[in-house]
From TrEMBL:
TM region positions: 175-195, 215-234
Disordered: annotated span: 331-364
Name used for this protein in its record: LOW PSII ACCUMULATION chloroplastic
Species whose genome carries this gene: Micractinium conductrix
Coiled coil: none
Amino acid sequence: MQALAAPTLALRLGRPFCPVPPSQRFTRQQCATLRRRQLSAAAASSGTSSPPATASAKESVERGLEIFAAGDAEAALALFQRAQGQAPTPDEARAACYNAACAHTRLRQWQAAVDQLTRAINEYDLKLSVALKDPDLEPLRERREWLAGLAIMRGGINDKQYMQLRSEAKAPFRLTRIIFLGGLAVGAGLGLLIITGRLVAALQGGEGAPELQETLQNFGINSAALAVLGFFVYRDVASSRRDQAVIAQEEALGQLQLSLGGGSRVIPLAAFRGTTRPVIIAGSRSQLSRALAGSEPFQAALRERGVSVVPLELSAEDAGEKLRQLKAEFAGSSGGSSSSKGFGGGAAAPAAAQPAPTAGLTTKDRKWQLKAHDEAEWQQWVQALKAAKGITADAVYVQVQLDGTVRASGAGMPPWRQLVDDLPELDSVRTKFTDGVGL
């Protein structure tokens, strides 16, 4: 927790209340230890974590901070929530909401923490920078709920703005061209409208009619200018829309979650930006096994380049594997004895040579392999990618750069040697200047 602006609510986690006289105060740690023991003894004697009675919002927040420092986040949360219903001043309401968000975070109630934090920022003028630096909120900042909450917090940025900024970063002068050329196209269109009226009058003839040849010449010039300018504006607008569609797909990928520590931590893929180049491999169980086995000679070099693998099983087996087995069975039956023993021997060989169903999927180091949390969400994203790129193959791979952009994707398994050749090491100068260029 961070100290807020209100001087009456400066009692924070780093400044524990010390109930002994000044002459007996030794260190801040001793004070905190003594207070924790007193609060723990009181809770044990009552047999419940119910919050104590408080008469005002200020008192509720201060008692909640004491209890939070003692480690009882649930009782502290009840006091912070009570303070919000005790006619608090704006400073007291800001402290109550913010500290409630910290308590929700400790209780792993992520969405409730975001809701309280959003209220503290949007309604009571808490600075977003406070939440960005508070170590008590660090687990929340790793969550997908936090990323979604930034879109509605004052000082944050929503998805539409972020995609527009990324699109402009990819083509810095595109918006300027659209505005400039669009203005010229509008002028050419207005000129063409006026000249069209003059052309009609010239064709009708009569006294005072415009000269036909000159009018036709002006009509042709304005028509050509409007066509050329319209083409360039249309091209830039279409390019901007394509880039935004790609960026939206990349941001959706960043929102997909990974399980760490045996599932105890669930964080979005976006949390790995700046440190990891994920390679997503989607396919059947046997395809994943072959892909992971094929990566073994290159793992050391790939780790130096920050590559981690996210295997995603789409099916238990693929049609190609079935076909290979049938061919092997047919070859065994036609090349060997016609007896049942000979047929069985021919069929058993490819089955024995086939990799174990889950080989490599759970025995590797987690820094090399990352586990998808909700596989249905990942599969949905992969299917959308295949539809967007027209990929019909069962297996697909996606290589993501440090900044979250998709560098390469395609059907089949990743070209491990090519990745080693193309990707610079993490500490390379090339990484600082060239990484993150999407295709």
